[in-house]
Amino acid sequence: MQKDFLMQDTADDRVAFDTGTLKYNEAGLIPAIAQDAETGEVLMMAWMNADSITQTLSSGRVTYWSRSRQSFWAKGETSGNVQELTGLRIDCDRDCLLLQVRQTGPACHTGRRSCFYTDLRDGVEVITSAPVATGS
Amino acid sequence: MQKDFLMQDTADDRVAFDTGTLKYNEAGLIPAIAQDAETGEVLMMAWMNADSITQTLSSGRVTYWSRSRQSFWAKGETSGNVQELTGLRIDCDRDCLLLQVRQTGPACHTGRRSCFYTDLRDGVEVITSAPVATGS
């Protein structure tokens, strides 16, 4: 079906998205990578369940599932550092999501733009960015 | 320690990388995102264990851990579509890696450059790219 769809981009070939068709782990979660839609910078990776995907799509603001708190985690709900969803991609195995986002402020809880601020250089860890905002 | 390191970027503050300091899941695995080092395109997400990280760092070519085969998966070993490692970043929680790679050919087993070729648009899945090479 996907092959036909690729060949003929007609309305008949379109596949309506259904969160039930994704592959979740044993805890019902799927990894979601958040990428800055403008710069391409990878900001963070977190987890979603089917309901948090539905919430994200309906609200336009990224909502993860917090494994530590076992609850929805509407990104920026308390900090204001929201992620506005501009695109959602599904990988070939349907077991990972790529979220394209417009990030307000830092994505990282340390106040840095990206969570991936530790770079490995010649066997040594180097912190490459400073907090852009101090959390309260 | 990391705070001091950020403040004073001196040799004394440097942290030698140790795979044992990362956080792995119950299967001993950590997710690794591969990003095209030049374009910023997110190519794929797969899993690594401590030994595959060590192999990747020593060889300079990305080696994942295949959950389905339960074996090392030296990317491109059979297809030739290798991933040369140009950078490795660790996230704030130390439970996710970002690999910056120079990708030869397609990263996806479908022959597409990226595994994230299915885009969600207005509730419909749209395939955004065609295979760049046909696998044998």
Main attributes?
136 residues; two-stranded antiparallel sheet; homodimer; 9 strands; globular; mainly beta; 35% strand; four-stranded mixed β-sheet
Low-confidence stretches of chain A: 1-8
What Rg of chain A, in angstroms, do the CA atoms define?
17 Å
How many strands, which pairing sense, and closed or not: the largest β-sheet of chain A? 4 strands, mixed
- Topology of chain A as a string of helices (H) and strands (E): HEEEHEEEEEE
Helix-strand category of chain A:
mainly beta
How far do the termini of chain A sit from each other?
A: 51 Å
> How many DSSP helices of chain A?
2
Overall shape of chain A: it is: globular
- Work out the helicity level of chain A: 10-25%
Number of strands of chain A: 9
Mean pLDDT of chain A: 91
Give the structure's gist in a few sentences.
With 136 residues, the first copy, chain A, is mostly beta strands.
Indicate the topology:
Two copies of one chain form a homodimer.
Chain A: H1 2-7, E1 15-16, E2 30-36, E3 42-48, H2 50-59, E4 63-66, E5 71-74, E6 83-90, E7 97-103, E8 118-121, E9 124-127
Parallel strand pairs in A: 2-7
Antiparallel strand pairs in A: 2-3, 4-5, 6-7, 8-9
